[in-house]
Protein: 2,5-dioxovalerate dehydrogenase
Amino acid sequence: MQLTGEMIIGQQLVRGAAGTQLAFNPATKATMLPQFGQADAADVERACALAEQAFDAYRSTTPEVRAAFLEAVANNIDALGATLTERAMAETGLPQARLEGERGRTVNQLRLFAKVVRDGHWQQATLDSALPQRTPPRPDLRLRKIAVGPVAVFGASNFPLAFSVAGGDTASALAAGCPVVVKAHGAHPGTSELVARAVQKAVADSGLPEGVFSMIHGDGRTVGQALVAHPSIKAVGFTGSRQGGTALMRTAAARPEPIPVYAEMSSINPVFMLPAVLAGGAEALGAAFVESLTMGVGQFCTNPGLVIGVAGPDFDRFAAAAAAALQPKGAGTMLTAGIHSAYQSGVGRLSQVDGVQVLATGQQEGAGCAAQAALFRVDAETFLASHALQEEVFGPASLLIACRDEAEVLRLAAGLEGQLTATVHCTADDHGFAAKLLPTLERKAGRVLFNGFPTGVEVCHAMVHGGPFPATSDTRTTSVGAMAIERFLRPVSYQNVPQALLPAALRDDNPLRLARIVDGELRTAI
Amino acid sequence: MQLTGEMIIGQQLVRGAAGTQLAFNPATKATMLPQFGQADAADVERACALAEQAFDAYRSTTPEVRAAFLEAVANNIDALGATLTERAMAETGLPQARLEGERGRTVNQLRLFAKVVRDGHWQQATLDSALPQRTPPRPDLRLRKIAVGPVAVFGASNFPLAFSVAGGDTASALAAGCPVVVKAHGAHPGTSELVARAVQKAVADSGLPEGVFSMIHGDGRTVGQALVAHPSIKAVGFTGSRQGGTALMRTAAARPEPIPVYAEMSSINPVFMLPAVLAGGAEALGAAFVESLTMGVGQFCTNPGLVIGVAGPDFDRFAAAAAAALQPKGAGTMLTAGIHSAYQSGVGRLSQVDGVQVLATGQQEGAGCAAQAALFRVDAETFLASHALQEEVFGPASLLIACRDEAEVLRLAAGLEGQLTATVHCTADDHGFAAKLLPTLERKAGRVLFNGFPTGVEVCHAMVHGGPFPATSDTRTTSVGAMAIERFLRPVSYQNVPQALLPAALRDDNPLRLARIVDGELRTAI
Structure:
């Protein structure tokens, strides 16, 4: 398939007329054709108007139609094959194996949501029987969840497939019955065009209204803001920087009708190394930690940016092993020139804080936007006193924190901002202390994990990729896993609605065979 | 029990030192003793600090302990008997039967949440098995929902028991495991003190940390805002005016850590009278509508403020019957002098819009803050052109809208703001048109009801008392019914957590006997 630089607005290909943009290869620092035309206000309006027009028809499709559509999107993305991988490699500097894995994750995610849609648990069908003899009589009441409305999705730079045009936000919104308008990320416009066409074709082949999906190009501060401000948009999915996410939150809150923003933004993912586990295996843990830190040039939301332990010979052995493992690590190409320069400033900022010691740096040489890994050490008192040390440095840099004792470890945990993840390494001998730490970590993070590293986010039913601000804008939700669909739903209650007019999920004969809550008791379908 | 005018901060009685307030009897316009001392910043700080201190211990209580505590609160409120009813009557002008009914509703609500806590469905326990043979291996992942943190609750003036100190917001937050700090409504400070002491005693008798519950007096613009801005507060429940609710929304969004606000604010609750039902029973419907409109002096969030039909002889008969039923209605005492004067301005504003016709007014004479019922009529075009006609007039006033045809009814429905309820009156002959109207009503309202009136909100599992803005600040939620607990929960995922450290809800042996989602399948406990 030949890239044209056009946007996908419903079933049309539209050349944006508000300027152009070229893609950029971060490994070679070369720009690439074609020219991508940028959206103007009329393009935003057209995409949103089509989404609005499509909404009622789309949300009323049967679970089977919607599930088959999601599977068609997955199949079309699979069919892009090497074309997609090659363009994504050129635009992101990510290696082939990683992008092939990410494509697998993307299509599996779409297929998981197809299963979720068919299962129907998301409808939360709930029935309370009429009690005509009661004083006053109780009416017949039935509840289901319905789609919230058209959704704006902002692709992320660090997952050009799994968190971009047809990534987790889009898949869960489409599953919920919401049309989607994507603002493509400027870091991978060609990848975005390829995937958007795959979705566009699935819309047509499934006989769905064209407004179910559109994708536009443009700057976040103009086109992105206009999209979030559009009255037809009823929710926003975003993965990116704290600055970008909070800007969208402000716009959404200032609308005549405020809408929810699901922004996944900023996390430093503390790792707690408890005493007994360090006593038993400080060296191996130091090396394993550096593997997690430098994987993908540290460009994961769940990258371990802090390691916390009690000062002493075991923590020193861990630090030495980590430093030794980090020093030979080559400089990897980062996703964009902007991310690269932000990383360099962040590392520079950390080095200059009084009391912060540079433990090790990786190799410097590398092509293009190459990032040198870096490991720092500081004591807990200095860390707690400096808010700057809690700011995310996106990339392969991490800070080891030595605490005086377990009490200081607990104080430090309590002083952390919200996180996507919190990790504990321990043996059975550490369980007493781990039990004291766990209640704090639950409050700080969306996912608490033991004896592993936080990179690698499983797409399943029990995943939470979320957490308190600033990790996300909405701690009640997850952007990965089956529960992500709940972000795009709202409950509606039906009182004394005639059977002929009730939605299928709530009819007496339960044609969708849903498990339902009936008079407060869960009843599985026979 | 003698009222003292003190606030309840943990297990202390504290006399607020930032000025005093007297209660006001809207029927007699007399003020009543004692003096209620108002909170200063230190009182807000103390209540929030206690809530924070109590949080981890309270959220870790077993479902049985928490359920028994909610039942103890209910029993203590029941035990207040006539003391409570008499003070509430004097402070609100509401009649005895209504307040006794509302007390029943309040304690039933607490008992419903006790049942909800024991059932445990709110934890959404979800388990995904480890797949060690997979490449890469899948870890063991388990998810549950936990309490979000201390909650600020703002009592409503129009439900001095069911939506005030120990009302739906407080009951659902306590059920979720969240300590609560109530800002009492200035319209019923004595009622608030009585109920707050009932809760305080239940906290002590249940052996819970004192910070689980506090109640302070003060102005919403100062004390209320300080409470919402306090870093320990993690969510807000509010029922009241659009102005008050949006002010709290702004404060919550501007915090360093933004938090969710659940504000139930403003709704005019459209009622659609379809042609066949009017042809068959216009007169009876006109009279029944006026009963709903004037019940409780129209001071319900779900009061029917709009009636929409197709112009013609049947709609005229309906209007005439409603006018005839309204005219003899006596002027009832409103809750506060402020609500009364806002009602008078609202009615005055409606009368002055070009094209609005006064169909009937009720009787004028009445004691104290007495409201004269009023019925207006307008055509759809005028209504759609005037945003002012969509503003809620809180009280016994309603507007009949005559549409040219069914298409104009649909356009009018599509032009409405978000609502708590939307009502359809129809016969089987109207089902074709009702089916066209329903998708729009679902998008506009939290509850769609047929052949009844929206006043009367059942407390059950399938209730949604919510809806799109401005009906509420968060369309994903309900403030009445079992699902209200979800507002105060957030999901946490546990990865490879040792059995010894896992919360009971997620342990292999399932000691709470919960229904859980295991590998995507719902499994009820044996």
